[in-house]
Write a structure and sequence with these properties.
Elements: E1 27-33, H1 37-41, H2 43-54, E2 58-64, H3 69-76, E3 81-87, E4 90-96, E5 99-104, H4 109-117, E6 123-126, H5 147-154, H6 162-176, E7 182-185, H7 192-207, H8 209-218, E8 224-227, H9 235-245, E9 253-255, E10 260-264, E11 280-282, H10 286-309, H11 315-319, H12 322-336, H13 347-359, H14 367-371, H15 374-391, H16 397-409, H17 427-435, H18 441-449, H19 457-460, H20 463-477, H21 481-486
Parallel strand pairs: 1-2, 1-6, 2-5, 3-9, 6-7, 10-11
Antiparallel strand pairs: 3-4, 8-10
Helix pairs in contact: 4-6, 6-7, 7-8, 10-12, 10-13, 10-15, 10-16, 12-13, 15-16, 16-20
Length: 490
């Protein structure tokens, strides 16, 4: 018999955690753009827990700019969904109630603009992935050639991209004499608040210099650091959620027990008491952000590219190989050398936590999923710390292997000749560069090191380090991942 849809909290098993508050008291105080799995396993849970522990009416309206599936699922379920927290010993479930409505901007664009202009909206959180912001990697400012940016600059009152929507919402509030909302970026961008501020101001200045001045004077752009491994939901996610809760749930997600959120405490119109739910409010997010980007995300990228080439579908499979696990720990140690002290954090303990999280047998995090958008992720995860190590006279051997693995991955076919989509905003450019060259380590590295704006001269002009990259790439072109790992000075 088909289980009923998860539309209310009545009759759920006692083992399933449910919201510790009356959902009917929630009001639409937060708009979240990007209703993907990470938001549902992270930001929405912090809000759910904060309301239960400290009160408040901070209901979330979550918005998708393009797709409609998640919006439709959440709408059918009155915003409810379940989160499976998986560890090797077992799985626990909770139902989250902080989402009170969902909106597909592709169907109702004016409704999103009106929502952003509403005085009820006090915070706009964002998880749209790096490539959606229209960031020019060469200038650090707005990429006016980005399709969404170009369209929104041409017709700013009818936006389609995230920056266009933010500026339109703020413009309407300014015209109506309404206080601004606080934009809160929760994507893995370095100094994400500062980056978002520059993009918004660049766009606003193109539209109206007075608007840009008003935003600069009145709108805070706090930075954040977010962390929770959240694999893409699968049919097993949905079937396990139904088995545990007794309800069908088309918006179910799965995640790990660990969760972290570090937030710069700068809000213009209040905020939930996320601190009661475990978030850390700080004056400067940068040390935590660099720690996570270089130690966790950098190691993840190494595992993603090298693990994929080795035939490991999941991160946990790569970590089950002792040589691979030792390589990852060596990479974390190297990354740690590039960091300034992080208040309250022991980097050795943090590395132990990361290794345990990566090895969690209950989390099926695909290497192919992590590998996407490489050109957006490499600069802060691998390129910058590698340059720091070399400048200090330290070994950047694990970084040479990671970059070589990314280059080999960029050929677009696995060790068995099976093709795959790079899923990278510069994928066509990468393919064009490697398509017509002799597939040698020297030719491939030369072609990809020459990608504009990706690799600094500190790396491209370091003959010794480039030789390491080419040596590792030569191993990987023959499929010899084991020799590549052995060649690293661990």
């Amino acid at each position: 018999m088909t289980a009923p849809l998860l539309t209310n909290l009545d009759g759920l098993p006692a083992a399933v955690s449910v919201p510790a508050y009356d959902r009917s008291t929630l009001r639409p105080g937060i708009v979240h753009i990007g209703p993907g799995a990470f938001f549902r396993a992270h930001t929405a849970i912090y809000t759910d827990a904060a309301i239960g522990l400290a009160g408040g009416d901070w209901g979330i309206t979550t918005v998708s700019l393009r797709s409609t599936d998640t919006v439709d699922a959440l709408t059918a379920q009155n915003g409810l969904y379940s989160v499976l927290v998986r560890e090797t010993e077992g799985t626990e479930a909770r139902v989250v109630g902080s989402v009170i409505s969902a909106l597909a901007a592709s169907r109702e664009p004016e409704n999103l603009s009106a929502l952003l202009a509403s005085p009820q909206t006090r915070i706009v959180t964002l998880t749209v992935t790096e490539k959606a912001y229209g960031l020019d990697p060469l200038t650090g400012g707005l990429d006016r050639s980005h399709p969404d940016v170009a369209a929104d600059l041409a017709e700013p009152s009818r936006p389609r991209g995230v920056i266009g929507y933010l500026v339109e919402g703020l413009a309407r509030r300014r015209s109506a004499g309404i206080a601004p909302f606080t934009p809160l970026c929760c994507d893995n961008l370095p100094s994400n608040g500062a980056i978002l501020k520059r993009l918004v101001l660049d766009f606003a200045a193109e539209r109206d210099a007075g608007l840009a001045e008003w935003i600069a004077a009145n709108v805070p752009f706090p930075s954040t650091m977010v962390d929770r491994i959240t694999p893409a939901s699968t049919d097993k996610t949905l079937s396990d959620a139904e088995r545990i809760t007794g309800r069908r749930d088309l918006a179910a997600v799965e995640t790990e027990p660990f969760s972290q959120w570090v937030i710069e405490d700068a809000f213009v119109s209040g905020r939930p008491d996320w601190g009661k739910a475990g978030a850390l409010f700080v004056a400067d997010v940068a040390p935590y952000e660099k720690m996570k980007l270089r130690m966790l995300n950098g190691a993840h990228s190494l595992i993603a590219y090298l693990g994929f080439l080795a035939g490991h579908e999941f991160v946990r499979d790569a970590m089950a190989d002792p040589a691979f696990a030792a390589l990852v720990r060596a990479h974390m140690r190297a990354a740690g050398k590039t960091l300034d002290p992080v208040p309250g954090i022991d980097l050795d303990v943090y590395a132990d936590q990361l290794a345990a999280r990566f090895a969690n047998r209950a989390i099926a995090h695909r290497t192919y999923q992590i590998a996407m958008d490489g050109t957006q992720k490499l600069p802060q995860r691998l390129v910058e710390p590698a340059a720091i190590l070399l400048e200090r006279g330290e070994s950047a051997s694990t970084y040479a292997l990671a970059i070589a693995a990314w280059m080999r991955y960029g050929l677009g076919h696995d060790r068995n000749g099976k093709s795959y989509d790079l899923r990278d905003p510069r994928g066509e450019e990468i393919a064009a560069r490697v398509r017509t060259i002799t597939p040698s380590a020297q030719a491939i590295s030369a072609a990809l090191f020459a990608l504009p704006g990706l690799f600094p001269s500190a790396l491209t002009e370091n003959a010794g380090w480039r030789a390491e990259v080419e040596q590792q790439l030569a191993f990987l072109l023959t499929g010899d991942v084991a020799s590549a790992i052995r060649a690293v000075n661990i």
